[in-house]
Amino acid sequence: MERARHTDQLAVFEKLFHVYHDKLHRYAFTILKDSEAASDIVQLVFKKLWEKRNDVVMEEAIAGYLYKTTYSLCLNDIRNNKIRQQHSRLATIHTTKTDDNARDKVIAGELTRRIQEVLDDLPPQCRAVFIKSRMDGKKYAEIAKDLDISVKTVEAQISKALKIFKARLSDYLVFVLIIIYIRL
Known about the structure:
By secondary structure, this protein is mainly α. The chain is about 90% helix and about 0% strand.
């Protein structure tokens, strides 16, 4: 008797599949605008129907059940796609920020290296004045007193150092300015 019932259920299920498959696919497609996704939804609808075959009366008012299930699954698919897109967008933003940070570190490291090279190449008095001014934060009068030179000499040495830096780092600074401009 159980076997006969199973055979009857299978026959009714096959009949419903043939009658409703294309209709449900068209309905799902109107919601999703994606034929493959619509096919997946319809397949899931019939899978659910088969799993609930003992709870659902297969012949009476089945159309409502099939369309309602199709609609619900389509909405779930749309919601899940939106969530996946948000996660993907956030992952892309995070990756971009990570890439930007890595690039910034490389640029900062390269700039620091180049500045140190130029600093090392400055004439001794020019280097001493520049370090006391720009790195130690001392005023020109303090530097003049420390090095026993005039304030005018301090100004001249700073001017000389800045010209050297500008000449030696101009190509690199243009590159840095371009990167900064692109980010803005």
